[in-house]
Fold:
Amino acid sequence: ERSMDPPKIHRLEDSVINRIAAGEVIQRPVSAVKELIENSIDAASSSINVVVKDGGLKLIQVSDDGHGIRYEDLPILCERHTTSKLSVFEDLQTIKSMGFRGEALASMTYVAHVTVTTITKGQLHGYRVSYRDGVMEHEPKACAAVKGTQIMVENLFYNMMARKKTLQNSSDDYTKIVDVISRFAVHHTNISFSCKKHGAARADVHSVATSSKLDAIKSIYGVSVARDLMEVTASGEDPSSSFFKMQGLISNSNYSAKKMTMILYINDRLVECAALKRAIEVVYAATLPKASKPFVYMSITLPPEHVDVNVHPTKREVSLLNQESIVENIQSTIESMLRSSNSTRTFHTQV
Ligand code: ADP
Ligand code: MG
Structure:
């Protein structure tokens, strides 16, 4: 027989709260890589190098040549809600940095062992310090360092056995990491990126700074992809409702792939938009004879007050004002481009 006594409600310990929250922000190794790279980009880096061991479960190491972290800030660096990027809520409306919540580094320390090495301009040496559960494990130690910051995340999910087990069985996280770095490299063409497995001689992603998105795609995705891309632009003119600008590179009728690649930036944030992706996929399926999936790189800019960046724990999605009319506009632009390219189809792949 079921007892009708109401259960007692109690307050969770902070350590439990923090670990649960961290598990939402850092869902898998690739989420940590994305956050660390965003921090390096926010730090005005021109070079970002990633080393990964065991799909990211043993080690994720991100080194940059950015502005570094002040010695005085090291004690609170990995506490939850400590940031140099946001002060008042209203800042969210105009924020240019990718980070704003001061949650990423803290989250990593609740589910992994984090070591930071950093040096700021004009200093003779850097500092190294390790963190656990939000706090410094010891005083920062002086050490030799080159320009910028290196963050090591070790033994990810050491205290979340179920998560660790599921990830160990699916060995595709390194692929996801390479994929996300490739996406960053296509858009942030002024930064050189590399990614390799620990101990490997060769990098699996290696981009050099260039001024052209097409060149970046060529070096990351290959000549055969870059050759079959065409430039696309669209814009909405009504400032009160659907003002936006879009620039991109999309595959033509010669391109053939089994899976769609969609690299989407909205106000310089790498995001996903299921509605837009679907709309583009539908246009390709309806316009092109082959059942080929498209390659799409697209950068959309909107007035910052039309974008809500704070809708997803991993910041993967943003919500847009007038999303429907923007999607429709882009869809019809692509449709007319494909129709005209299809009628002037070339066959350079066939001899
Ligand atoms: P957020 O990016 O939301 O501010 P994070 O937890 O990711 O929060 O980082 C906290 C702070 O640590 C940042 O605001 C930034 O000042 C500093 N920081 C993190 N990574 C770097 C880095 N690679 N270079 C310089 N500063 C960094
Ligand atoms: Mg951040």
